[in-house]
Design goal:
Elements: H1 10-17, E1 19-29, E2 36-48, H2 52-61, E3 70-77, E4 90-97, E5 104-109, E6 119-125, E7 131-136, E8 141-150, E9 153-162, E10 165-176, H3 180-195
Antiparallel strand pairs: 1-2, 1-10, 2-3, 3-4, 4-5, 5-6, 6-7, 7-8, 8-9, 9-10
């Protein structure tokens, strides 16, 4: 099903992203490492500004908590160990939109991919719904773009650039996994149709 209107801001993006996604990922190393490919699950659970993590992450980055709109918890897990929600494979993002334009703002993360400390990124939404996130660290710049193809298919692409150039690019196709309730509803509907 085609998504009717792309999410125009981070609050709507988190809401549209809620659930478990099957991530099919290809990583291209442009240095001396072999390329990688694999599948994993990405679990996304949004929350509002009353969540306790808002205060702690804002404090770590010197941001006024009242400026935060919402956030989301992310877990990455193997397809074979579902439900593990290991904190070592998790992150918390806080959305701090610009007051003048909610399509732009700052994303606060409790820990970065490369440097395992709190990090602040900038983000913006294009007119077509593509979310661009830029993260600058002491040693690298990461750029990630995400968008919905349909309400059940997302695309993510990213690159990591160091002083000597781009060292890694990533491409992900993400498919929303149906919940147990959705599967039961489909099965019940199929049984009704079979009885007709």
């Amino acid at each position: 099903m085609q998504i009717s209107t792309p999410p125009p801001n981070m609050v709507d993006f988190f809401a549209a992203s809620q659930g478990t996604w099957l991530t099919r990922r290809a990583v291209h190393h442009l240095d001396h490492q072999a390329d990688e490919a694999g599948n994993s699950n990405l679990i996304i659970l949004p929350f509002d500004q009353s969540d306790p993590s808002v205060n702690s992450i804002c404090a770590a980055l010197g941001v006024i908590p009242a400026s935060a709109a919402d956030g989301a918890r992310f877990w990455w897990e193997s397809n074979l160990t579902q439900g593990s929600m290991d904190p070592d494979n998790a992150a918390v993002l806080i959305d701090v939109p610009l007051q003048a334009d909610s399509r732009k703002g700052f994303s606060l993360r409790d820990k970065g991919y490369v440097e395992k400390a709190a990090v602040m990124s900038t983000y913006s939404f294009a007119d077509d719904g593509v979310l661009s996130i830029t993260t600058r660290n002491d040693t690298n710049v990461g750029i990630q773009r995400s968008w919905f193809v349909t309400d059940q298919v997302r695309i993510r692409v990213s690159s990591a650039q160091f002083i000597d150039g781009v060292s890694m690019t990533t491409y992900c196709t993400e498919l929303l996994c149906p919940t147990a309730e959705t599967i039961k509803a489909i099965a019940a509907q199929a049984e009704k149709q079979a009885d007709v």
